[in-house]
Amino acid sequence: MQPRRSLRLVAGALVLALPLLSSCGFGKATDKVYTPGVGTNDRDGDVDVLAAVVVAAQPNEGTFVVTLVNNSSEDEAALSGVSGPDLEFGEFEPIEIDPRGLVNLAQEGGITLTGDFDAGNVLPLTLTFASGDTATLNVPVVVACEEYEGLDLTEASEFIPYDCVAALGEG
After folding, report:
1. In the chain, what are the domains?
2. pTM for the complete prediction?
3. What are the CA-CA distances from residue 151 to residues 33, 53, 56, 62, 88 (Å)?
4. Which end of the chain is more exposed for a tag (fewer CB within 10 A), N or C?
């Protein structure tokens, strides 16, 4: 009698567990790349654009910072331009990215821009690479506080900074 009861318990446990086991599979949302953070990501081209933000210490001026990852194991890549509607960008030399390398503009120095924007806005920016590829992103404007402190390279950021306590809602 004992072996039949054990067999029934095992069979019952399998029947109850079947819905749980069948929910696993390939191509599910848990298998996709997810990078939590404020910045915008684009992984569609030969160069991954990661954590793109505009850091602003005051309205209408800021610094574009981003991490660029070259997915090619053989060819160099270069960011040759950044544009956006009604925005003016500071001049910069093409930003070279070694094969399988990365460049973090938060460490290397960002690209300054001016226009009609404020912290909390989202700016449509188009990145152009030397290969002719482009990436269009909606990039958030963040306050130059906490982890972004010191990343806004505009000259006026030293004189009229946002009040970080008020801007972050901690007051």
Report:
1. 36-167 (2.60.40.1890)
2. 0.76
3. 27, 11, 8, 9, 18
4. N
